[in-house]
Design brief:
Layout lengths: L1 E2 L3 E8 L9 E8 L13 H5 L14 E8 L5 E12 L6 H8 L4 H6 L9 E10 L4 H16 L6 H10 L1 E2 L6 E4 L7 E4 L12 H9 L1 H12 L3 E6 L2 H15 L7 E3 L16 E6 L12 E5 L4 E3 L11 H15 L2 H4 L14 H19 L7 E5 L5 E4 L1 H8 L5 H8 L1 H11 L2 E2 L3 H16 L3 H19 L31 H17 L10 E2 L6 H5 L9 H16 L3 H14 L3 H13 L6 E3 L1 H16 L9 H9 L2 E6 L2 E4 L13 H27 L1 H6 L8 H11 L5 H30 L8 H4 L1 H6 L13 H11 L4 H24 L4 H31 L19 E10 L20 E8 L2 E8 L9 E6 L3 E10 L6 E9 L3 E7 L5 H15 L8 H4 L4 H4 L9 H17 E6 L9 H4 L14 E5 L12 H12 L1 H9 L16 E4 L15 E4 L4 H7 L10 E5 L6 E5 L4 H9 L10 H18 L18 H5 L20 H8 L15 H5 L5 E6 ...
Parallel strand pairs: 10-12, 10-13, 11-12, 19-20, 34-37, 35-36, 35-37
Antiparallel strand pairs: 1-7, 2-3, 2-6, 4-5, 5-6, 8-9, 13-14, 15-16, 17-18, 20-21, 22-23, 22-28, 23-24, 24-25, 26-27, 27-28, 29-30, 31-32, 33-34, 38-39, 38-44, 39-40, 40-41, 42-43, 43-44
Helix pairs in contact: 4-5, 5-17, 6-7, 6-8, 6-11, 9-11, 11-15, 11-16, 19-20, 19-21, 21-23, 24-27, 27-31, 27-32, 30-32, 31-32, 41-42, 46-47, 48-49, 48-52, 49-50, 49-52, 52-53
């Protein structure tokens, strides 16, 4: 029983205490006057009676009532029911007081000082009941009764009523009804709730939802649970109290344990800035004061809003629950919502009564908590049972099993105070249970089953609501209340007596009597029903059916089990194969659990000794298992492994054993103190359970045997059993049990101190690894630095002195571990009630435990270092070339995957060939990695990746983790410009200094002092000599020759005019040490004043020079000049006069221009000494020389360096400015003009050229925009190129360059009036301010080109795009994006574009001088491409060699400098100018596969070897340098002695004789074909040279190495033993060389032929001869067979890449299809036979008819039309088929006909126009049904049956054309 009210207080206005404005209240009387012993009087009641402050009012207000809640120091809540009414202030002179209370109104009166009395003022007075019970209605009635007695003057003694009120006692719970009377003829029924633990809410929850709405209340609910501050605002005090009460009711079963003040008085507002969470209510008049609170969630009850500040983040419920809760709440609060859309809504739906709704809402939240906390009892650890149960909750396990570790909300709730209270209160296993316990134990399954079924959910909610309602109102209200109420409006009576002073004595007497009576009465003992709390189903049982846990894991678990059994059966190979799969499976939780269970099976008697390999496997699995665990260890993996790491061990040497724990310390979980606590409690619980189980079994042995054994009892069940028995035990028995439990905990603490030292002390205690590891540092809050605070506290000090070890570092490690363990022990022992003596004992033991462990570890560490390393795969030796030698033996490394996915088995699939383990070798020529993949599934393959040292562009150190379970290792990333990347991680056995030596050697080899140090020179010598630049010269005569040349050159260079930089080309002796200024090499321009004496032809030639001359004549360029008819050179050096050009020997001593060849073609009329002067105008003295002549138009192609500034001015401005005398500049410019004029005069048609065209419009604007000059090849249809018509027509004078559709040049007569004879293509930046001059016959075309710097930058980006260093998130997009950013293709586009322009000009008969930059980079590219496109000779193997030798080698492209081949070039970096040229050739090759004799492989071969330094061909920067080094002519003399090819050309020749690898089988050239490739970027392809990779053999360009691979020859022998072998071969991407594994048909046939001839003992015929024979016989066959046979030559055409892949671009191919099948006949009736004309083409349709029969045709539209025959033929009806795919219009005799009668190629159609009927046309047809189709060859006349059909045909054809 409890008192209904503890105190009755009368509080009034205190007239004496006048503060600042507000008055104060005072307690007038209180009963009883002395405090109750069990319940002191609460302080500050007067503040709470008037929360807004005490004030006087001008009129009487009606009485008010509210309940405030005070919380005392023991966090007991006191309910203060305040009943306030107003009384007149008695004070006779009220003015002074009144003003304070009232403010403005009295001010004037005061000033007027009138004698008039102010209006009557009223002061509030409060009757207050203080109680610990919350019976608001009873309090309202009782105080109302007292007020009624006073106001209405009833004849009842107030003292009696108050005495009775204070002495009334009622039961607290149990659902009893108690009727009370206060002795004024009144009667009240007090109803107590049945179960005390369920809160009573009457209607408050429903009202809260009405005021704020569902979402807002959920926000508040989550904010309260996650400990945010919540403030309610309202103008009604009663509502504030209700809202706060409702929020607490919703939180059941959690109890709010922070500040709770439903009504906060004005004086205490600063409480709102407290840092702790709270729930507080404040009157809305203080709203402005709450504005600056930044971290408070404010709920305005009157306005219905909840305001969450920006800085507050409220975690909401986890997802399915949040949605379900919202839906359930809306079903309860708004049942009409469900049926709102029905056409016939049921009439009866209405929400429940407010009281019932209130309970339904609470039922929703009760269900919510049951779902949130389901299974919580399975995560309780009971640590002590006696004397008091101690219970801990295993938070991590709970979150892990629920799969909610990431969920903010639940994590915060479980960490909160409310939940801690919940565990303390509800954790106890033996106690009374309530609705929540039943719900969470028995109803969870039902809730899971009903999910999603609204009806069932609602039914469940109603059932729960019913129970809650019943709890508050167990009986239907039978008895009526009878309480007197005051008469209406009584508070307005004018003359009211003030509330009388009560007589304390009377009241006290009543109270004393009542207490006396109570003491004599027997105590009413209500037996609490205690029982065992049901646990409910375990979490796993609830959750597992949702499927994801069991998803395909069965197979994986099988793999894990098998692998472990293999390990323990010592089947290591098998285990190794499964191992990667196991490691992958470890990502899944099930597999990790399975691993721990399987390993447990192999532990006998707590120990399992393994051999080294088994140990290694087990460790790796454990590490992999742990690496995905968080520090929380929510799935208990680390917990399950903890006993295992101390069980598995291996013997290192007699008496020394290494345990698994020393190898799995790297994981954070071991440093997480919560993990250790949870583990400790779990173990303690098991031991305590065992303690009671054993004793129980001893007693019940006999009974047990009779019954079946029961299920094992859980610890909680045992605990509840023990708690039930506890009161019945004897005192001794109790003491004994307490002691047993205590010692159990203590022994576990010692055990854990050991375990923790095992896992925290590193194997090598000298390393301070621990100090760095995060966990220990975090928990250590006292001192952040372990070092300064190394001896913490007296305990550590004593242990330090005792153990007496000096090693400071290890003591640091030891110290920190000791402190960590001490902290742990303190926490768990105090929580689990270990006695103080025991605790002290522990503190003394811990340092000794740690110290002993350190000592054993030292021995283990020593021994483990001596272990033989695990058998690593043996290093494979790479094959070396002849003369290639190893500089450094293999270092064991891992080759790591880079950004290319294929090798690592990325998204492409396929086996992961990388990472591979093996070794990296450094030879004089290459860096080679050779090894095997670490993935055992592909372990038999060999992986090779290599590149020439000379191609290394970047080397950087990286640190990298080679394998999942290893530490980070140092590594290197080596990038090569052969598009290869070696990303290697050194194995731990490689000392870091040997890695350093590797780098040094690499650097030395990459950048030799002198070009003599490169591999091409050192090959065959010992590597030692390679480093010395001055090697003994072999050929003395050559040496002298070089000396003479150099001497002469030095003599001839006299004064130097250097335009921009002072620069003397250094002699070779200093060249090694001097660095070129970086990137400025393009600006260096030298103009020399030459000494005449050496140049006069009469000067005598020494023998050495004669020798030079004969050699020079033998050079390739001379042979080419003769072929082109550009001048011959007889031995006597006499000139033949009738030629327009001559070969000049002016540069034979390389005196005029160092970088030009010795012999040059110049106009016949120009003297050598003029040349000398002209050369000064050009950069690097590279004056214009002729390099090619068009045999048909006789136009010539010249090349030179760019002009110097003064040269340009002289050339173009001399005639405008009158010069006062022949200055030197003037004379040179005149000579220059003369020179150009001489070139022009050499052209045959120059004399009759009248007018001329200007190309001035052709500016950079048109060159740089991609589309305008996409290709200058124009087709008849304008739409195919957005070609600027105006320029085009100026250029060519007729239909866009006048080239007919099939590429034949137009008649020259059209062109003559309109063009310049010589175009100078120059750099826009150099030609600024140049005005065209109408008198000259040349014209300058300024264009913008990119410089070498841009090429370098672009190439770097291209390499990164094609061979990225690390994988990107979205490879395909990243690749394309970086490819575009590199701008490589746009540079290729630019070069092709310029080249096509030049080809076009040359073809129309104008000569062209290309004069860009220094004349050795882009000039060379353009000039060589022009020749390649214009002259079919250069497309043969021999011709291409000649082209490269002439334009690139002789004309001084600086290969050594651009390739950064020596130390000098290191700073300037690699510029792939030649590679860019080869890429352009590759693009042309793709578009014209039948025009080239060489294959794509040939281009790749050159790309690889021009930078590989394997051959001497591409070394040095010019002929001059090659001669000086004695390189140029040595080949003849030395060939006999040397095996190694010095020249790449010889090598290619030899290889080509042996095998057709460089030959293109599609080669079927057309005579005199000029190629005009498309250069739009959309037509360009990324060269596969950049992306392909062959890991089986390394780059396939060192042919001998690739061939050396042994083929599996033993196949036949195995056949009989094994199962029948299949003939299939698997080709892996990026591993196998496809062309070798699966050669094309022709190569294969040739090879078979060769083998057969060998077998027959014949001398095998050369492949080329065989091939030529086959081709010849093929041709004759084709002629005999006549028209119908498609050429069987097509067997050879890999048609996949003819002009472009078939069908996509074919509409354009009419313009220039390259598939000339060299057939004389022609199947197409529309294209005229065209073999006679050069460049004649077959139309696309022919091409198709060879592959497709007419049945398989695509018919987009068909029908019959009349067609007028050709000249003089009649109209005939034909069946027409419009084929969109093939882009043609075909016609047949009739619909049934399968033979096509003719084809009109739509690519040739120019227009469709309405036609007119002609002679012989069908008579009946409307004339609008005629239409004409105009093609480039003729006009076709058609006629349809009627107008509509005609229109349809026209539309269809038009749409086809526009689609194209």
């Amino acid at each position: 029983m409890a008192r209904l009210a503890d105190y009755f207080v009368l509080v009034g206005y205190d007239p004496g205490k006048r503060g600042s404005g507000d008055g104060q209240g005072q307690i007038l009387q209180r009963f009883p006057e002395k405090d109750w012993e069990d319940n002191p009087f609460p302080q500050g009641i007067e503040l709470f009676c008037q929360p807004s402050g005490w004030q006087l009012f001008p009129e009487r207000n009606p009485p008010t009532f509210f309940v405030a809640v005070l919380t005392d120091i023991n966090s007991e809540r006191h309910y203060c029911a305040c009943f306030t009414f107003w009384e007149a202030v008695e004070s006779p002179q009220p003015q002074s007081h009144a003003r304070n209370g009232e403010g403005e109104e009295e001010e004037e009166e005061e000033e007027a000082s009138s004698p008039v009395q102010p209006a009557q003022l009223f002061a509030p007075k409060s009757l207050v009941l203080v109680s610990r019970l919350d019976h608001a209605e009873v309090f309202r009635n009782s105080l109302g009764l007292i007020y009624t007695i006073y106001v209405d003057g009833l004849s009842v003694s107030l003292e009696n009523v108050i005495g009775n009120l204070l002495t009334c006692t009622i039961p607290i719970t149990g659902g009893a009804q108690r009727t009370i009377s206060l002795g004024a003829g009144d009667r009240q029924v007090i109803q107590t709730p049945i179960n005390d633990s369920l809160p009573v809410s009457s209607c408050s929850v429903a009202l809260l939802f009405r005021q704020l709405g569902i979402t807002n209340v959920l926000f508040l609910f989550c904010a309260a649970l996650t400990e945010h501050k919540i403030l309610f605002l309202s103008s009604s005090y009663q509502r504030l109290t209700d809202a706060c009460r409702a929020l607490l009711a919703l939180m059941f079963p959690l109890k709010y344990s922070f500040t709770y003040v439903p009504i906060l008085p004005a004086q205490l507002l600063e409480v709102l800035s407290t840092p702790t969470p709270f729930i507080i209510g404040v009157h809305s008049i203080f709203q402005s004061e709450t504005q600056e609170l930044l971290d408070v969630v404010i709920a305005d009850l009157d306005g219905g809003t909840v305001n969450v500040p920006e800085c507050v983040h409220i975690s909401l419920l986890p997802e399915p629950l949040l949605q379900q809760t919202r839906e359930a709440l809306s079903m309860v609060l708004d049942p009409e919502l469900e049926v709102a859309d029905l056409a016939f809504p049921p009439s009866t739906i209405s929400a429940s009564s407010l009281k019932m709704q209130d309970k339904e809402i609470r039922a929703v939240f009760l269900r919510l908590f049951a779902q949130l906390l389901q299974g919580y009892r399975w995560c309780l650890h009971i640590i002590r049972i006696h004397p008091e149960p101690v219970i801990r909750f295993h938070k991590a396990a709970f979150l892990g099993q629920r799969g909610l570790t990431e969920d903010d909300f639940l994590t915060k709730v479980l960490e909160g105070m409310a939940f801690a209270g919940f565990v303390t209160e509800r954790g106890a296993p033996y106690r009374p249970i309530d609705l929540f316990d039943e719900l969470v134990a028995y109803e969870v399954k039902r809730m899971k089953a009903e999910e999603g079924n609204k009806q069932k959910i609602l039914r469940h909610i109603k059932e729960l609501a019913e129970k809650l309602y019943k709890n508050e109102n167990p009986y239907p209200a039978v008895t009526m209340h009878k309480v007197q109420k005051p008469t209406e409006g009584c508070h307005l009576r004018l003359h009211q007596k003030p509330f009388p002073r009560l007589d304390e004595g009377t009241v006290q007497w009543i109270i004393d009597q009542a207490t006396a009576k109570l003491q004599t009465a027997p105590p009413a003992v209500k037996a609490e029903k205690k029982c065992m709390v049901p646990s409910g189903p375990p979490i796993a049982a609830i959750l597992e059916r949702n499927g994801n846990a069991l998803a395909n894991s069965a197979r994986r678990l099988e793999v894990v089990r098998n692998c472990i059994s293999y390990v323990f059966e010592n089947k290591m190979l098998e285990a190794k194969k499964l191992f990667p799969a196991v490691l992958r499976a470890m990502k899944g939780r099930a597999a990790r659990h399975c691993l721990t269970q399987e390993l447990h099976l192999h532990v006998q008697q707590n120990r399992a000794v393994l051999d080294h390999q088994q140990f290694d496997f087990v460790i790796r699995m454990m590490n992999c298992c742990l690496q995905d665990c968080t520090a929380m260890d929510e799935h208990g993996i680390a917990a399950a492994l903890l006993p295992l790491v101390t069980a598995f061990c291996r013997k290192l040497s007699p008496g020394i054993t290494q345990f698994a724990y020393s190898c799995v310390q790297e994981h954070v979980v071991w440093t997480n103190i919560q993990f250790w606590e949870a583990m400790f409690y779990c173990d303690v619980q098991n031991h305590i359970r065992a303690l009671y189980l054993d004793s129980a079994e001893e007693n019940h042995v006999e009974q047990e045997s009779a019954e079946e054994p029961q299920e094992a009892k859980s610890a909680l069940e045992i605990a509840s059993e023990q708690l039930r028995l506890w009161p019945t035990m004897s005192r001794e028995k109790q003491q004994e049990l307490i002691q047993k439990e205590e010692s159990t905990v203590f022994s576990q603490a010692i055990h854990y101190a050991n375990r923790m030292s095992y896992l925290l002390l590193p194997l090598d205690t000298s390393k301070n690894r621990l100090l760095r590891s995060s966990g220990l540092g975090d928990v250590e809050s006292v001192s952040n630095s372990f070092v300064t605070n190394s001896i913490a506290g007296s305990v550590a000090e004593s242990y330090d002195t005792e153990s007496g070890f000096e090693d400071a570092e290890s003591s640091d490690v030891a110290n920190s571990v000791v402190r960590f363990i001490n902290r742990f022990v303190d926490k768990v022992c105090t929580e689990s009630g270990v006695t103080n003596e025991h605790l002290k004992g522990l503190h003394v033991m811990i340092p000794d435990i740690v110290q002993m462990h350190i000592e054993t570890l030292d021995a283990v560490h020593r021994e483990s270092k001596r272990l033989p390393p695990i058998q690593k795969p043996k290093l494979l030796r790479p094959n070396l070339l002849l003369g290639e030698e190893c500089v450094m033996e293999g270092l064991r490394v891992y080759l790591m995957p880079d950004g290319r996915e294929e090798g690592a088995g990325g998204s492409v699939g396929g086996p992961p060939l990388l990472p591979a383990e093996g070794a990296v070798f450094l030879t004089t020529y290459r860096i080679i990695f050779k090894g095997t993949p670490t993935d055992p599934l592909v372990g038999e393959q060999v992986v090779i990746r290599s590149f020439p040292i000379a191609s290394l562009t970047k080397e950087k150190k990286i640190s990298i983790q080679a394998q999942a379970d290893q530490f980070i290792q140092e590594g290197l990333q080596l990038r090569s410009c052969t598009f290869q990347l070696l990303k290697i991680a050194f194995d731990e056995e490689v000392a870091s200094d040997s890695a350093e030596i590797f780098r040094k050697h690499l650097h030395k080899l990459r950048y030799p002092q002198h070009v003599r140090g490169t591999f091409a020179f050192t090959v065959g010598q010992s590597p030692k000599q390679a480093m010395q630049p001055k090697a003994k010269e072999k050929n003395p005569s050559l040496r002298t020759l070089s000396k003479n040349l150099v001497k002469n050159a030095k003599r001839t260079i006299g004064r130097q005019y250097v335009t921009r930089k002072k620069y003397t080309p250094p002699a070779w002796e200093q060249r090694g040490s001097q660095h070129f200024p970086e990137d400025n090499e393009d600006e260096i321009s030298v103009s020399e004043e030459l000494d005449r004496s050496t140049l006069t032809p009469g000067s005598t030639m020494r023998p050495s020079e004669k020798m030079t001359m004969t050699h020079v004549v033998e050079r390739a360029c001379c042979r080419d000049y003769q072929r082109l008819g550009l001048g011959t050179l007889s031995s006597s050096l006499t000139r033949s006069k009738n030629e327009p050009f001559r070969i000049s020997t002016v540069n034979r001593m390389y005196a005029i221009c160092r970088s030009y060849p010795g012999l040059l073609i110049v106009p016949q009329s120009i003297q050598d000494n003029t040349i000398q002067r002209i050369s000064r105008c050009y950069r690097q003295s590279r004056f214009p020389v002729v390099c090619w002549r068009n045999s048909r138009t006789k136009a010539v192609l010249l090349r030179s360096g760019g002009l110097h500034g003064k040269g340009v001015v002289g050339l173009f401005k001399s005639q405008n400015a009158p010069t006062p005398g022949p200055s030197q500049a003037d004379s040179t410019s005149l000579e220059q003009e003369k020179y150009l004029q001489a070139v022009i005069n050499s052209m045959p048609h120059y004399s009759d050229a009248g007018g001329r065209n200007t190309l001035s419009g052709f500016t950079s604007a048109h060159m740089s925009s991609a589309g305008k000059w996409g290709s200058i090849r124009a087709s008849g249809r304008m739409s195919s190129y957005a070609l600027n018509v105006e320029i085009g027509s100026r250029l060519a004078g007729k239909d866009l360059l006048g080239t007919q559709h099939n590429g034949t040049p137009a008649e020259p007569s059209f062109l003559r009036q309109h063009r310049a004879s010589l175009y100078i293509i120059g750099d826009k930046s150099q030609l600024k301010g140049v005005k065209p001059d109408p008198l000259q016959h040349w014209e300058v075309v300024p264009i913008e080109v990119f410089d070498v710097r841009q090429v370098k930058a672009s190439f770097k980006k291209l390499m990164k795009a094609c061979v990225p260093g690390c994988p990107s998130s979205d490879p395909s997009v990243a690749y394309l994006r970086s490819l575009e950013e590199s701008e490589w293709l746009s540079q290729i586009h630019k070069i092709l574009q310029i080249s096509v322009l030049v080809v076009e000009l040359l073809d129309t008969g104008s000569s062209v001088l290309v004069s860009l930059e220094d004349g050795w980079d882009i000039t060379t590219q353009v000039v060589s491409l022009v020749q390649l496109l214009s002259d079919p000779y250069y497309r043969t193997l021999e011709g291409f060699r000649l082209l490269v030798e002439k334009e690139w080698l002789s004309f001084g492209h600086r290969f050594s400098h651009r390739g950064a081949q020596t130390l000098a070039g290191q700073s300037s970096g690699f510029a792939p100018v030649f590679l860019q040229f080869l890429d352009c050739v590759h693009q042309i090759h793709l578009q014209f596969p039948m025009e080239f004799e060489f294959s794509q492989y040939y281009l790749k071969f050159l790309s690889y070897h021009y930078i590989s330094n394997r051959f001497r061909t591409f070394l040095l920067d010019s002929d001059y340098e090659r001669i000086e080094l004695g390189l140029l002519y040595e080949e003849k003399g030395e060939r006999k002695g040397q095996q190694v090819s010095k020249s790449i050309w010889d090598y290619i020749d030899r290889l080509n004789k042996k095998a057709p690898i460089f030959f293109n089988y599609l080669y079927a050239p057309e005579d005199g074909e000029v190629l005009r490739p498309y250069s739009n970027i959309s037509n360009l392809k990324v060269w596969d040279y950049y992306t392909e990779e062959t890991l089986s053999e390394g780059p396939p360009y060192d042919w001998e190495l690739a061939q050396g691979q042994p083929e599996p020859a033993e196949e036949p022998d195995r056949q009989d033993t094994a199962a029948p072998q299949s003939k299939r071969r698997i080709i892996w991407p990026c591993y196998d060389n496809r062309s070798r594994v699966e050669p094309d048909a022709i190569s294969k046939l040739l090879e078979e032929l060769h083998n057969l001839e060998m077998e027959l003992g014949q001398v095998p015929e050369r492949w080329k001869d065989t091939w030529d024979k086959v081709k010849a016989s093929q041709r004759t066959e084709g002629r005999q067979e006549g028209s119908r046979t498609p050429s069987s030559l097509l067997m050879s055409s890999g048609l996949s890449h003819h002009r472009r892949s078939l069908g996509v671009y074919l509409q354009e191919s009419g313009v220039g299809s390259t598939l000339n099948l060299s057939l004389d006949s022609d199947t197409s009736s529309t294209s005229t036979p065209s073999s006679g004309k050069p460049g004649g083409r077959r139309s696309t349709s022919t091409l198709y008819s060879q592959f497709q029969m007419s049945e398989s045709e695509n018919r987009s539209y068909e029908g019959s039309l009349y067609k007028k025959g050709a000249f003089m033929k009649p109209w005939k009806s034909r069946w027409f088929v419009l084929d969109k795919t093939k882009h043609q219009l075909r016609y047949y005799d009739s619909r049934m006909d399968t033979e096509c009668k003719g084809v009109i190629d739509l690519a040739e159609v120019e227009s469709i126009t309405p036609g007119t009927p002609t002679m012989g046309a069908p008579k009946t047809v409307d004339e609008k049904a005629f239409f004409d189709l105009k093609t480039t060859k003729r006009v076709y006349n058609f006629c349809a049956q009627d107008v509509q059909l005609a229109q349809q045909w026209i539309d269809r054809i038009q749409s086809c054309l526009s689609d194209a």
